[in-house]
Specification:
The chain is α+β, with helices and mostly antiparallel strands. The chain has one domain: Cyclic Phosphodiesterase, Chain: A. It is 24% helix and 32% strand. The protein contains four helices and ten strands, in the order ββαβαβββαβαβββ. The longest helix is centred in the middle third of the chain and has 12 residues. The two termini are 31 Å apart. It comes from Streptomyces sp. NBC_00119. One of its GO terms (molecular function) is ligase activity. Keywords: Ligase. This is 2'-5' RNA ligase family protein.
């Protein structure tokens, strides 16, 4: 497995994510306001299922299921253009990835995204800031707004595992060719 960076999640957790490196400048802009607002460990991404399975339950069969499901879905290109704001939270929604999120949630219906904290079907999003004061959240939006709209492409799903203080890439599962 390849290390992809520090994070603050519990050890032996896994996640299914879609990395969107084209959105990394949005995270950098948020970090200019306060680096503590931006979660460390992964590049800009949309979490499909977090937490996913405990690391001990990840098997070759699970890997194959992730790969097969991703391969059955088209790659997605979309524009990031709006904000989602809630207390202490700023994100950019990625509604074009809802069918992908729905497919992965349907395959593993016993796993609630974010442990159910945000309902059964949370909107796919790139988190820009967590733990922000109202003033910091407004500053993040002001700093990021000139960077939008931003064209991004989703080409794959990554299965990452948190071990030894880092998120480690377990597998990459490409989507089918673009429509």
């Amino acid at each position: 497995m390849t290390a992809v960076g520090e994070g603050s999640a519990p050890e032996d957790r896994s996640a299914l994510v879609i990395t969107l490196p084209m959105a990394n400048p949005l995270l950098a802009a948020a970090a200019e306001i306060n680096p503590a607002l931006v979660r460390k460990g992964l590049p800009a991404h949309v979490s499909l299922l977090y937490p996913f399975l405990p690391a001990a339950e990840l098997t070759a069969d699970v890997d194959a299921e992730v790969r097969d499901l991703a391969a059955s879905l088209p790659a997605v290109q979309t524009d990031l253009k709006d904000f989602v704001a809630a207390p202490r939270f700023v994100a950019v929604p990625v509604p074009a990835l809802q069918p992908v999120a729905d497919a992965f949630c349907a395959r593993w219906p016993h796993i609630a995204p974010y442990g159910g904290r945000f309902g059964e079907r949370p909107e796919p999003h790139v988190t820009l800031a967590t733990g922000a004061t109202d003033e910091e959240a407004e500053l993040v939006r002001d700093r990021v707004r000139p960077l939008l709209p931003l064209r991004v492409a989703a080409w794959r799903v990554d299965l990452v595992v948190r071990t030894d203080g880092d998120w480690r890439l377990r597998l990459t599962a490409p989507f089918a060719a673009s429509p």
